[in-house]
Every structure is written in structure tokens, then in C-alpha cells.
């Protein structure tokens, strides 16, 4: 259950991670000292950097578990100390410290010290879905079709939980392959909740939420048309973004552009690594739910619960077909144009 307001009361230049936090935060989320963070990253050594962005630097770190073993963690050091950065930092902690699901990234703790704002997460050994789809590392095998389906199912589980699993609907707002991370067992987990918003109570009739106040509309190519048109938001905006991800999983970035989708059949743009690997009965279910996620009218898009069910059915049909067909390639005879 989401707590209505966690009441972050820190000042901009809080001198300790232990100051000015209400008891509920202390109970829900561990607060690391800056000394702990520096030790785990070898004083923010450049060799520990595993990623950078406009708003943060990401380090690989090691924190002691029960004083015995060193656990690998990810440490995100926020760039900037303005009101915008503070708001996004608070937003992610407030959400993640209350959410528990196997398909969401796990927040291990945070630290605030003067201008330092740091978030600590579990380590995701296999990077992002984007990394694996576009991987240039010849040592890594391309993702198989069934691996891709399982990753999509995991991400769908996580997104369904955000929409229905808490007292209030949570809109992720930026579902892309970069935001779907993969652990050592290739389990998919949604990440990056800086810009997520809480919507209406789940049981109530959903109303569009105006989002013009922060100026963020999403990542180009994944944004639902109604956001671009009138800056309103419902859970169906996430569904649309997820539909783009489903298309990218099978075609990479060939049909991310709407105009290309309306002119070129999906089947002619399938990733060469998947040619002959997709059973027709599986494809029929997969492309149908993908097409429905991408409907222009948000009311015509399915809920994430239905997306989950259909993806699981697609995987089941693929597995059944593979048991019957042990040597021949599959042929897809359909030609799907997504309008």
C-alpha cells in the first residue's frame, strides 16, 4: 500500500544522511553514510564507472553483507543540486521504498550529504534489454526468440503491478528497452522511476492526468499520441510505450517510426537472428497484442493484465510448436501493417 505522503523534510544542504527524515522513511529504506559510499566505489574511482547520463554518473560498488561478503551494487550519483534534481531524487525513493515486486528494480538505500544525492540499487549483471538487443559483443549470443518473450513477460508483470498492485495507479512514463534491466538469471526488471507519477486510486474510475507541470512527455518514438497532443496521461500511455518495445524486440529499431510502420509489413523487418525461429501460431498471438497496444485510441488498447496473458500464451504456443518441430525453420505467411 502506498503511503500518501512520506514527508521528505531535508534541507538542500543536509549535513548527514540521518537528519530530518521521518520514522517511516527510516523503516522503509536504508540510509548509507557518504563514507560507506566512498569506500564502496574506491572514492568514486573512474574505473568503477559503468554508465553516465545527463543527470547522473553510475558506479559499480561493493558493500559488505553481514560483515562477511561483499555484495555487488549499483550506485547512482545525481548530477546537479537544483530543485528539479532534488524532486526527481525524492520521487524515485518515495516510490521504490514502498514497492516490492520481482520485476521491479530493488532499491537498497540512499544517501544525502550536503550537495551529494546518491541512490543504491541491486546490481543487474546483464545490463539493459537495449544492450542485449543491440549488443556488439561477439562473445554474447543474440537473444533467442523465447528469451525475448520471457523478458517481455517479466516486464509486463512489473508494469501490470505498477498499474494495479498498489492503492494508487503508478504511471511509469518512460518505458523503453533502456529501462528494462536484466539480472544474472535474465529476469527483467523495470527501472528509473524519477519521473513516474501516482494516478487515481486503483478502484476508482481513471481520469486523465495533466502532466504539463514538469514538461516531460517521454522518450521520442515511445510516446503515446495523446500525450503529444494534449499532455494528458493514463496507464494506457505506458501500454502504448510497451507496444513499441514489443515491436523493437522483434524488429529492433526498423519500425520505431510511426510512418514506417504504416508502410512496411512487420514480417519483412524481423531481426535476421529470428528468421525461421518464430512459430506461426505464436506469431499470430504476439503480433495481435502488439498491434492492439499501439492503437491510436487509448480506449482500444488492452490493460497490462491482458498483455501479460497473451504474451504467456504466445510463449506456450512457441514451446509446443518447438516440441513438434525439431529441425525445420518456420515460415510466416502473414503481412502485418500497423496503422
TrEMBL record:
Top-level taxonomic group: Eukaryota
GO cellular component: plasma membrane; plasmodesma
Domain Protein kinase residues, every copy: 44-313
InterPro entries assigned to the protein according to its UniProt record, in alphabetical order: ANXUR1/2-like, Kinase-like_dom_sf, Prot_kinase_dom, Ser-Thr/Tyr_kinase_cat_dom
Keywords: Kinase, Receptor, Transferase
GO MF term set: ATP binding; transmembrane receptor protein tyrosine kinase activity
Protein name: Receptor-like protein kinase ANXUR2 isoform A
Amino acid at each position: 500500500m502506498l503511503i500518501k505522503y512520506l514527508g521528505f523534510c531535508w534541507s538542500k544542504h543536509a549535513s548527514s544522511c540521518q537528519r530530518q527524515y521521518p520514522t517511516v522513511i527510516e523503516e522503509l529504506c536504508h540510509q548509507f553514510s557518504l563514507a560507506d559510499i566512498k569506500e564502496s566505489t574506491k572514492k568514486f574511482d573512474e574505473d568503477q564507472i559503468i554508465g553516465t547520463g545527463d543527470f547522473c554518473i553510475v558506479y559499480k560498488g561493493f558493500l559488505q553483507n553481514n560483515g562477511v561478503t561483499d555484495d555487488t551494487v549499483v550506485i547512482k550519483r545525481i548530477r546537479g543540486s537544483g530543485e528539479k534534481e532534488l524532486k526527481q531524487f525524492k520521487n524515485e525513493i518515495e516510490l521504490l521504498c514502498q514497492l516490492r515486486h520481482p520485476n521491479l528494480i530493488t532499491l537498497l538505500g540512499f544517501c544525502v550529504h550536503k550537495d551529494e544525492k546518491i541512490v543504491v540499487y541491486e546490481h543487474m549483471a546483464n545490463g539493459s534489454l537495449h544492450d542485449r538487443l543491440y549488443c556488439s559483443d561477439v562473445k554474447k549470443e543474440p537473444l533467442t526468440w523465447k528469451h525475448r518473450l520471457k523478458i517481455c513477460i517479466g516486464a509486463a508483470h512489473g508494469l501490470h503491478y505498477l498499474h494495479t498492485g498498489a492503492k494508487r495507479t503508478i504511471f511509469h512514463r518512460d518505458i523503453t528497452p533502456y529501462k528494462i534491466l536484466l539480472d544474472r538469471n535474465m529476469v527483467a526488471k523495470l527501472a528509473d522511476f524519477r519521473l513516474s507519477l501516482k494516478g487515481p486510486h486503483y478502484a476508482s474510475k481513471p481520469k486523465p492526468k495533466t502532466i504539463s507541470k514538469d514538461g516531460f512527455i517521454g522518450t521520442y518514438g515511445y510516446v503515446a499520441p495523446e500525450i503529444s497532443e494534449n499532455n494528458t496521461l493514463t496507464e494506457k500511455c505506458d501500454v502504448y510505450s510497451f507496444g513499441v518495445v514489443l515491436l523493437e524486440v522483434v524488429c529492433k529499431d526498423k519500425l520505431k517510426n510511426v510512418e514506417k510502420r504504416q508502410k512496411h509489413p512487420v514480417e519483412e523487418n524481423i531481426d535476421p537472428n529470428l528468421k525461421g525461429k518464430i512459430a506461426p501460431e505464436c506469431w499470430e498471438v504476439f503480433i495481435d497484442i502488439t498491434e492492439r497496444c499501439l492503437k491510436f485510441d487509448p480506449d482500444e488498447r488492452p490493460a497490462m493484465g491482458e498483455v501479460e496473458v497473451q504474451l504467456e500464451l504466445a510463449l506456450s504456443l512457441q514451446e509446443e510448436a518447438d516440441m513438434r518441430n525439431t529441425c525445420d525453420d518456420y515460415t510466416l505467411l502473414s503481412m502485418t501493417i500497423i496503422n
